[in-house]
Specification:
Layout lengths: L1 H10 L11 H12 L8 H48 L9 E5 L6 E6 L5 E7 L8 H15 L3 E5 L4 H14 L5 E5 L4 H5 L2 H6 L5 H14 L1 H5 L18 H19 L1 E2 L5 H4 L6 H15 L16 H7 L3 E2 L17 H7 L9 H8 L3 H12 L29 E9 L3 E5 L6 E4 L20 E11 L4 E5 L2
Parallel strand pairs: 1-4, 4-5, 6-7, 10-12
Antiparallel strand pairs: 1-2, 2-3, 8-9, 8-11, 9-10, 11-12
Amino acid sequence: HRYLAIMRAVKEKELSIKISIDIVRIEYNIKQYKISRYASSSKELLFEAYRDGLKRLLLPSIERAVQSELKERADAAAISVFGKNLNQLLMTPPVVKHVILGVDPAFRSGCKLAVIDENGNYLESAVIYPTAPKNDYNNSKNSVLAFAKKYDVKAVAIGNGTASRETQEFFARLNRDEGAALNYTVVSEAGASVYSASKIAAQEYPDLDVTIRGAISIAQRLRDPMAALVKIDPKSLGIGQYQHDVDQKLLEKKLSDVTQDLVNRVGVDINSASASLLSYIAGIGPKLAQNIIVYRDENGSFSTKSQLLKVKGLGKKAYEQSAGFIRIKEGKSLFDNSGIHPESYAIAKKLDTLDLRNIEIDTLAKDFNVGKETLKDIIKELLKPGFDPREDLPPIPFKEGITDIKMLHEGSFVSGVVRNIADFGAFVDIGLKNDGMIHISKMSQKRITHPLEVLSLNQYLPQIEVISIDAEKGKIGLSLV
């Protein structure tokens, strides 16, 4: 990361760099070991030839090679961090069975509100002005409470951009003074504006203003982060470091591989998924994903995976490759809500008649002529059909109050959520306008080489010590040790 930081400064013409070499020593070695002691009249000519080749050809070539190798190493490290952060971000547990209010904060243009139901479908929107310059608390309060009553809203997702803190203060006041009981959490709105102006958003919400689309995206990031974030270019998500300075082709491939791997590991509900999410399923791709949406719109929800064969352009091979990654929650068969692939259905039917908790894997693998790992996967799916691996992760933390920098002092303890991880440390949302930072040296009592060894994106940290405060700049130094 240091190399990328230096090269960014070079690009901005703030710094210049060069590799320092001991030319005097090299020239001495040339005279001592490369020019024959018996040379007389040609000695000076040979030395000048050596020196010319050294300065004009060899040293610039070595410098380019060194710079190239350093760049490759730096790119690989940065892309690796980016991939790990994306993995953790997409694996954030969804907030299920809740109607969610998404809030895109702003000052002059107002806070945009959007309500989505338990399935992520858009219900209604509004614009309120609870912050400066209007400070219209009463009308803002009435709008939010009306939504809460009409749709039984229990969870609020507030974007972390401009006016986020002031908007959190508004909801904290609602809870305190009005008894609203609206638990809220702060959601990264990085990329929300990119999504709201995108072709995908225009297709999904053609009649809505781009600002309302942004509020919908914020709400959907809380309900199902994976489903919402795959619609956005990962480079716009505000994770990792120096994403615009690394090899863009390598970065794009890494992010695509990470996203596809996670989508296939978690599985996709075909009756609620967007075309963007479906396109990451193995064997599907963008064109078939759009055809699935068209079929769903024309024929209603899928009731069995075999209906996929009726989708235009989706043949038997694509079906066999993709079916194991698709889920139908109210499907006709147990297999419709599992990760079992069609070629294993016959074995799964035989297993479904057995006591799966008391079987001999080795014996059955030989009897069914199937690999032990494949058999274990089938049994796992039969024991927990429709299981989402994100359910095993800690839930998203909500809050009702607010933290003020004036309340903090060195030695006090706060809680927070990790928002970004870099090579040198992690940025943690502790309820202030700016995130606090935990330097890598303050993360563990034992030596670690990278913050990802002890922290993960969106991880909730219940107790963090405040070790430094710069009230003027709004900077907070934090420690876990």
